[in-house]
Amino acid sequence: MKSSGERPLRVLFVGDVVGRAGREALARQLERVRAVSPPDLVVVNGENAAGGFGLTEAVFHELLSLGVDVVTLGNHAWDKPEILRFISEANQLVRPLNFPDGSPGRGWTIRTVEHHNVAVVNMSGRVFMPAPLDCPFRAIEKTLPQLETPLVIVDFHAEATAEKKAMGHFLDGRVSAVLGTHTHVQTADDQILPGGTAYISDVGMTGPFESVIGMKIEGATRKMVQGLPGRLETAEGPAQFNAVMLHLDAVTGKALTIERLNCPRG
């Protein structure tokens, strides 16, 4: 993709942070990334950051203290009831845009980076996801004109790859990036779509490496094999770091590059 000539904006988007191990890995890797190629904007999916389920106010501020600019959520947004006390006042925190009308919080936010406004939008898929959810395609179509900037990052928190692919093509050329989250497994389909939108089906997980998508192996396996109820527990030990680094044309909003970052046991 041809650049306008202005210095590209560097956006680091970090895949679902899971528990304390994920937060510690995030802190270490942010320091390393900044030493090599400092991002202009850091966006983190934090819906599993507090004990593997949801987000507390203390953990939210911990993420901000690391230099995170925006925290996105997903289907676990309300797992920690205390979030209802602060989400509506937290401009750096966004929950899925297509939650039902009247849900607290916001579905998008604007951050000013190098004199350019960058919008970060959070949405949830509907295929194999908890109801009720409004149509994400109609929700983003209605919202795009309100953003008033070509620099738009979309965190599409969804289960089905087909739904994510469809969203990528639906928004191609109209947003800077459509980045999948939720499955906690990084996919190898990072690309720039024909219209200039960066796309990946899932950014992956920043959390315990020896785990079942962040949960203790024994408990997760037992639940699968026996089908018995039981609360999953966040795994411990070394954590992996999954993210993507975007280079965006600051004038047109088009993506110039997308690079997967994968650091096992980081």
> What's the helical proportion of residues?
10-25%
> How widely separated are the two ends?
32 Å
Under the CATH scheme, which architecture would be assigned? Answer: 4-Layer Sandwich
Provide the CATH topology.
Answer: Purple Acid Phosphatase, chain A, domain 2
> Under the CATH scheme, which class?
Alpha Beta
**Largest sheet, described in full?**
8 strands, mixed
Described by the principal axes of the CA atoms, the overall outline is globular
Number of helices: 5
Strand content: 25-35%
Domain module tally? 1
Number of beta strands = 14
Computed over alpha carbons, the radius of gyration is 17 Å
Order of H and E elements: EEHEHEEEEHEHEEEEHEE
Mean pLDDT: 96
Description:
The chain has 266 residues and is α/β, with parallel strands linked by helices. It has one domain (9-263): 4-Layer Sandwich (Purple Acid Phosphatase, chain A, domain 2), CATH 3.60.21. Helix content is 23%, strand content 27%. It contains five helices and 14 strands. Strands 1, 2, 3, 4, 5, 12, 13 and 14 form an eight-stranded mixed sheet that branches. A six-stranded mixed sheet has the order 6-7-8-9-11-10, with helices on one face. The model has no long low-confidence stretch (mean pLDDT 96).
Brief synopsis:
With 266 residues, this protein is an alpha/beta fold. The protein has 5 helices and 14 strands. It has helices at residues 19-36, 57-65, 136-147, 161-171, 217-226, and strands at 9-14, 16-17, 41-45, 70-72, 93-94, 108-113, 116-124, 152-157, 177-181, 191-192, 198-200, 205-208, 239-248, 255-263.
